[in-house]
């Protein structure tokens, strides 16, 4: 999409309805929508009930999509970004994005373990034309991640970790999230022209920080091991995995899940034993300042 050239061009993409103090969904409708997403629901409801937050609906003509956005800022830059991203990704027509620009950052202290409230940023139901994103911080990367789910580009993986990962404890069942997130970050880097090497260095810093906090048995309330550790082991092989995916035969799947991944997980565990926990951001895409600097 071309940027808005003038006010007439902006008018062409005018909101479907005028900005309103009222959310597009009633609190009751929102509660139903989020009935099994209680941790997100609290964050969203607290945000949309702030007086400065307004709700907008936009038709995005070049992507033939609809964006519902709740924000306390001028929505125009967000509308442009979402339209460009969807067009670039090639989402099908009548794709819908719900975007709550909650300003809660993904930040943990040196004594804190990652949890839903400091990690997650959206959800989507596979093979639907609709995604939901609820944080302003790196909403672009989350749009890519949730679109992968919505478009059915996920891997089909068993919900229990293979023995070769040597992990005991309670893992969230969506282990395919490791690939979904790796793929989303690779797309993010491709779109914003960010070095994949720098992205991998950031992934590794976060994996070490998480592994050095980990207790045995492992305990998580969201897919921490998949998002931050297994992803690091997949990332160096992205060019191979894009066409090969998880493999077709059992032997191929074993190769991807174990031979490709296990040695990196072991190395990370060894290195993490020498690392001290520090306060850190759990955002997965690089901040602009880190994108420009050498890690
Ligand atoms: Zn996901």
Outline:
This protein is an alpha/beta fold and 295 residues long.
Which helices and strands, and how do they pair?
Layout: H1 7-12, H2 27-33, H3 38-48, E1 54-60, E2 65-71, H4 76-89, E3 95-100, E4 107-108, H5 116-119, E5 122-124, E6 130-133, H6 139-150, E7 169-170, H7 177-192, H8 196-211, E8 218-219, H9 224-234, H10 238-244, H11 250-259, H12 262-272, E9 280-281, H13 288-292
Parallel strand pairs: 2-3, 3-6, 7-8
Antiparallel strand pairs: 1-2, 4-9, 5-6
Helix pairs in contact: 6-7, 7-9, 8-9, 8-12, 9-12
Bound molecules: zinc ion.
Zinc ion (ZN) binds at residues 145, 149, 177, 180.
Give the H and E element order: HHHEEHEEHEEHEHHEHHHHEH
Major beta sheet summary: 5 strands, mixed
- In whole angstroms, the N-to-C terminal distance is 33 Å
Structural class category:
alpha/beta
Q: What small ligands are held by the chains?
A: zinc ion
Number of strands: 9
Rg on CA atoms, Å: 20 Å
- Percent of residues in β-strands: 5-15%
Uncertain regions: pLDDT < 50 for 5+ in a row?
Answer: 1-23
Helix amount:
40-55%
Continuous helix count = 13
Nearest-integer average pLDDT: 87
Strand order of the largest sheet: 1-2-3-6-5
Q: What characteristic shape results from the CA principal axes?
A: globular
